[in-house]
Amino acid sequence: MVEPLHTPEETAKILGISIKTLREHIELGRIRSIIVGTGKKRKRRRFTDKNIQSFIEGQKLREAPPCQSIKAPKAHTTPMTSNSTVVAFSVLQKPGTRKTLKQ
Q: 26 and 45 in contact (C-beta within 8 Å)?
């Protein structure tokens, strides 16, 4: 059984895009086409249903896994080996003020 071949106009209408946008997709290799005829100046392209469907599947957004670099980093815990103690700032003595003589 032979698949029907769609013209660029029909294909653009099926995809809901302009012919200009369809041509850009062709140039970028995003959609495959069949070249009909032997024209050297202007190639006559036709599209199968399979070409159109594979283009649609390729254009769908894919669920990407969350980016590893934006995860909140885990706090590194290490055993404490120092014998220091924590002192509140209110307990610390204020440094003495020096009076300087003006000359």
A: yes
Distance between CA atoms of residues 29 and 24, nearest Å = 9
What is the per-residue pLDDT across 75-98, written as a single tens digit (0 to 9) for each?
A: 777 776 777 777 777 777 667 666
| Helix (H) / strand (E) containing 45 | strand 44-46
Residues near 26 by Cβ (< 8 Å), separated by ≥ 6? 33, 45
The C-alpha atoms of residue 57 and residue 80 are separated, in whole angstroms, by 56
Region of residue 29 (phi > 0: left; psi between -120 and 50: alpha; otherwise: beta): left
